[in-house]
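pasting Helix-turn-helix transcriptional regulator for the record, 273 residues
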Amino acid sequence: MPHKFLKHWSCGIAHLLSLEPGRARLRGLSQWLRQVCPVDHFVLFVYEGNHRPLALFDTFPADTRHIYVEDYQAGPYLLDPFYLACTRNQPAGLWRLRQLAPDHFYLGEYYLTYYQQTGQTEEIAFFVDLDCGAKAVLSLMRSVSSPAYSRDEMQILECARPVVEQVVREAWQLRRAERPRPAQDLDYSVHEAFARFGAGVLTAREQEIVRLLLRGHSSASIAEQLAISPGTVKIHRKNLYARLGIGSQSELLGLFIRELTLPERAADLRATG
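structre below
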């Protein structure tokens, strides 16, 4: 690391830690990390039990924030590889989205719908362990016009990890002190909607396959996950499409999103079975 860069880097840390903890310091963190490499947008989510993801900070403009924050919080986060990695207790560290995503994630409707709408294609994230089993994920996003993060950039960002973890933990502790989330306010409804999607219309096996399809798994990956043949997966897939009255994966995602946003869809769907 060149001497001039190291001096600039350390001065940036000193300035960052002089800011007030919380949003001011998180914004300062984003500016400091941009000294290392270009980043188009940042977003910091906290995943805690069955609460919906809590957005502590983001840099999205108003015209796209609803896609990446508000729409995401409504239920599609259940299909996000970063969220799913948190449920598997992914170790703290810096991770590329492609390291954690299923094999067909970049061909799936979730990616095509929620990522390409905003032009973001490259994403890495710091995973930070919080107290009480919660996890924070600070995502660094690049647009389609930007190259993938290089090995050198990843190595320098890895050196920034202790500072990132301190700033994120301080922001989380401050948020909990100001507005604690009561235990009885756990949001099980979204998880239940995902688990019961297609109930009364699909078989239990077909429901398993639907959940994996929505999360970006190919027929081969589903076959491996469920210990069945790819041909059997294709038959199940054809049957479940027919039972749901759809003809594509995009329609499957649309049906799932409508059921999340309109709870009465579950009753309507069962009535058509």
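The longest strand covers residues 120-129.
The beta strands are 41-47, 54-58, 93-96, 120-129, 135-143.
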